Amino acid sequence: MNHRQILDAALRNQPAHRSRYLNLVADGVERDSRFADRTHLLYPVLARAAGTVEPMLDPVEFVDMLADFLDRHGAAIGAALYDRSYLKSPDRALARPATLLSGWISARILDGLQSGRYQAPADRTYSFRSGDGAIDRPLRGFPFHEEDATGD
């Protein structure tokens, strides 16, 4: 089976700029030997997360990040794919790994923005949040410092 078809089908519903970007990433994956026997794990998760991918990372960097992601989480993704629940509800079965991948992507983008490697487009506003809406106490005043939150 050509597992890339799973990603290609998901990209039909994405904006053109995101589809072009993820096709570049997928082309890089196809040429990279680290994915030779693992695209069946990668493409369903990437397809599920496609709507959350912001095309900011260099495609080569994105492919490297995907290789690291599969090294760490490939077994869990395989367990989700081969579980019976995947047959009934693929989106639900892959929600957790897709959310995790989206978090990795967001963290990499935030690191790049902070270091100055990337510049956020002026015509966009970004919002990052936790999946469950929980906010740790130290971050409650973000982006303000504690003294700013109290009016000092």
List the helices and strands and how they pair.
Blueprint: H1 4-11, H2 16-31, H3 39-49, H4 59-81, H5 84-88, H6 90-93, H7 95-115, H8 146-149
Helix pairs in contact: 1-3, 2-4, 3-7, 4-7
Helix content: 55-70%
Query: What is the count of β-strands?
Result: 0
Shape descriptor: globular
- Percentage beta strand: under 5%
Order of helices and strands: HHHHHHHH
Give the low-pLDDT segments: 137-149
Counting helices, strands and paired strands, the structural category is mainly alpha
Oligomeric state as shown: single chain
Largest sheet: none
What's the number of structural domains? Answer: 1
Tally of separate helices: 8
First and last CA, distance = 62 Å
User: Kindly state the mean pLDDT as a whole number?
Assistant: 85
Rg from C-alpha positions?
17 Å
Explain the overall architecture.
This protein has one domain. Helix 1 packs parallel to helix 3, helix 2 crosses helix 4 and helix 4 runs antiparallel to helix 7. It has eight helices and no strands. The chain has 152 residues and is mostly helical. About 9% of the residues have low confidence. 61% of the residues lie in helices and 0% in strands.
Which terms would index this structure?
about 150 residues, mainly alpha
